[in-house]
Amino acid sequence: MHTARRKARAPRRPRAPRTPAPSPPAKPDLDLANINLNLAVALDALLTEGNVTRAAARVGITQSAMSHALRQLRELLGDALLIRGRGGMVRTPRAEQLAAPLHRGLLEVQRALRNESVFDPKASSRRFILATTDYFASALLPSLLELMDTEAPLVDLVVRPLVIPQIEAQLESGELDLVVGAYPEPSPVLRQQKLFTEHFVCVVRRDNSVVKQRLDLETFLRLPHVLMSPRGEGVGSVDIALEKLGRTRRIGVRLPYFLTAALAVTRTNHVLTAPRRLAELFVEPGNLRILPPPVELAPFDVLQVWHERFDDDPAHRWLRGMMLRAAAAPRSSR
């Protein structure tokens, strides 16, 4: 047998240590003296709106001027800031980090320049932003606007939809001044003040062929019901009360808006269980009547909520006082 000769292997050369890739040079700190404050305002609008056209309208400049500002900001910050996504423009991670502190900072600058140690509502042209539902807006805004017409003719009011998960951040940043509603979440940084206590009533068509002088439980359960449900699902206070009695009702329609829910009763035999102040808005001009519910329903408090940062702000205190007065304004008895 022949034995295969093995070739001698050359000794391995030691590998040279890898040279790490050079890190990109650190960008020098931005010199605020060389930055146009208008760029910060434009950036705030762009990150808020996520759209060049809407951001331009928000600031009051042309679309081309806003596009030019975006190009300058991208070069200044070394980041795209906004990129195209499936649903439109979306923020980059760097933009997400900038959005909240930038907005807070601009609000602080605005307040510092105002120097409103004393707030004069008759002379002020300040804009306040509230978040609430259509029910609370309908219940309070007529009285609030009536007071403002007389005492603060130049003050503007913006009402936005109530988005519960975002409330604390929006109140802290100043994006919202007040939240009005039945806000149950306690928070160490949010202040609450009761505006009024609300009670539930039943609303039926005046010529409802089934309901007589009173609404008993059996009739109540026999009729279809309207439920105000923002997401089109779930149950309400009535269903929880009925469950304790071992009973259920038929929910004929779920609607996302309080005002539409009241209108749904005007031409049908449906029953709507709703807050009294909402029901009173529709009884007089429509063909509806209010009846006590046949089940016991606990009342609830309607609150105004704000961030502790604005406890001592004179304009903010004035607004909260106006909300209290609007809530206490007399309503016609029915």
Account of the 3D structure:
It is elongated, with a radius of gyration of 30 Å. The chain has eleven helices and twelve strands. The chain has 334 residues and is of the alpha/beta class. Helix 1 (37-49) crosses helix 3, helix 2 packs across helix 3 and helix 5 (134-151) crosses helix 11. Helices cover 38% and strands 20% of the residues. Strands 4-3-5-12-6 form a five-stranded mixed sheet. Strands 9-8-10-7-11 form a five-stranded mixed sheet. Strand 8 (224-228), helix 8 (237-244) and strand 9 form a beta-alpha-beta unit.
State the separation between the terminal residues, measured CA to CA.
118 Å
Uncertain segments: 1-7, 19-26
Please name the CATH architecture of the largest domain: 3-Layer(aba) Sandwich
Approximate strand percentage = 15-25%
Number of domains: 3
Elements, N to C (H/E) = HHHEEHEHEHEEEHEHEHEHEEH
How many E strands?
12
What is the CATH class of the largest domain? Alpha Beta
Structural topology:
Elements: H1 37-49, H2 52-59, H3 63-77, E1 82-85, E2 88-91, H4 93-114, E3 127-132, H5 134-151, E4 156-161, H6 167-173, E5 178-181, E6 190-198, E7 200-205, H7 217-222, E8 224-228, H8 237-244, E9 250-255, H9 258-263, E10 271-275, H10 276-283, E11 288-291, E12 300-307, H11 314-328
Parallel strand pairs: 3-4, 3-5, 8-9, 8-10
Antiparallel strand pairs: 1-2, 5-12, 6-12, 7-10, 7-11
